[in-house]
Amino acid sequence: MPKEEVTDLLRFLYEFSPGVREKAIWLREFVWDLYPQANELIYDNYNALAFGWSPTEKLGQTFCSVAAYRSGNQNVHFGFYWGSEIADPQNLLLGNGSQYRYVLVNKLDDFPKDYITALIEQAWENSLAKVKNPKDIVHGKTITKMISPKKREAKAKK
Q1: What H or E segment, with its residue span, contains residue 64?
Q2: Edge-to-edge strands of the sheet including 39-44?
């Protein structure tokens, strides 16, 4: 099962602080429990480790994601790839670009689970609407899409 396929993700998370690892794994479990039929796409980039969920294998149909940034403060975002297209009545989502919106995850105890669950549901439906060919829909894979050979130097906090 894909939820158990954590080898790459754990290897990529190793360079981050224990607190970042805990948040990332908790958020991963949170989404997998809600959408086991989705696919997890992992991108180990220069500035961040990002992983998100899509009904297909395409980044452009990602509905939500987790990003752990390699900068000194190692921020963790829970984001929505097409966040500008979903309703956010409580105005909790940050970002003002044309597409991506996110919440900063400082403490898991403060994470607005119920509210985010409702946003994820909207984002899932929005993502499905972007699928042009139903044959592109695949179920429950974990796919490492990119591993950047060069990484920003991480300054893990212990």
Answers
A1: strand 64-69
A2: 101-104, 76-80, 64-69, 48-54, 39-44, 142-147
Residue 94's DSSP bridge partners are 102
pTM: 0.88
Question: What is the rounded CA–CA span in Å between residue 96 and residue 109?
Answer: 26
Task: List Cβ neighbours of 123 (8 Å cut-off, separation of 6 or more).
Answer: 63, 64, 80, 81, 82, 83, 86
Read out DSSP for 71-105? STT--EEEEETTGGGS--TT---B--SSS-EEEE-
Beta strands 142-147; 39-44: pairing state: parallel
Distance CA 43, CA 59 (A): 10
Contacts of 49 (CB under 8 A, 6+ apart): 12, 13, 16, 24, 42, 43, 67, 68, 70
User: pLDDT tens across 87-140, in order?
Assistant: 999 999 999 989 999 999 999 999 999 999 999 999 999 999 999 888 888 887
Residue 5, C-beta contacts closer than 8 angstroms, at least 6 positions apart: 142
